[in-house]
Amino acid sequence: MKRRVFALLAALSVAVGAAGLPAQSWAADESPDAMIKRLSEEVLTAIKADKAIQAGDTSRLLTLVDTKIMPNVDFQRMTAATVGPAWRQATPEQKKRLQDEFKTLLVRTYSGALAQVSDQSISMKPQRGAADDKEVVVRTEIRGRGDPIQLDYRLEKTPGDGAGWKIYNLNVLGVWLVETYRSQFQQEISNNGVDGLIAALEQRNKTNAGKKS
Question: How far apart are CA 40 and CA 46, in angstroms?
Fold first, then answer.
């Protein structure tokens, strides 16, 4: 479990984005595996240099996610896939609250593992698929102390002026993040509806915040 927590935190850290580099400097035709490698190296370097984040400063981490996550992750798609069919019936306000609470849940749950980032590095596995694929899986390993940790990313190619690759799911040690939370969320929705899920996430986040205070 500890290895999975660290690996998922590392994945979320990559999703946060390249701290200090403006999005417009990235090549529009950058391959998905090259993007993951670049972000991994930049983010791990940034985390190692940030003593406040390593010490568990959740507010600093939340600010970093707020400012950097959106260029690199389709968080709406991730949340919608996790919520399941009920997402289509949710109001715009409910969708916004679900995204906000889910993001906070992920950050607060795994922020403590940031202190473990020390001598880890990312090893890329050979990329599979065709050059014109619109959805791909990039497979990596986190290497450092102990056995390598499997860490895979599902990405989609976004069209239009802001074309590029965005992450929408993470696989840690063989377990996909969306599928892991989907069963929990759908059980809550079945019992108490979308508002019940929002209330449960709010309470869980308050509890996690209290543990870190």
Answer: 10
Give the tokens for residue 62: 């939340």
Give CA–CA dist 166/155, Å, rounded: 5
Give CA–CA dist 192/94, Å, rounded: 14
User: Is the pLDDT assigned to residue 70 strictly greater than 70?
Assistant: no
pTM over 0.90: no
Residue with tokens 């102390």: 145
What letter represents residue 202's amino acid? E
Locate all alpha helices (DSSP H) within the chain, ordered by sequence. 2-16, 32-49, 51-54, 58-68, 75-83, 86-89, 92-110, 177-212
User: Is 181 in contact with 189 (CB distance < 8 Å)?
Assistant: no
Q: Among 3.40.50.11750, 3.10.450.710, 3.90.550.10, 3.30.390.30, name the CATH number for the domain at 2-20+27-212.
A: 3.10.450.710
Q: What is the DSSP letter of 114?
A: G
On the CB side of 7, CA atoms within 13 Å amount to 28
Altogether, the residues listed in the chain come to a count of 213
What's the pLDDT tens digit per position in 107-149?
A: 776 655 555 556 677 788 888 878 788 999 999 887 777 777 7
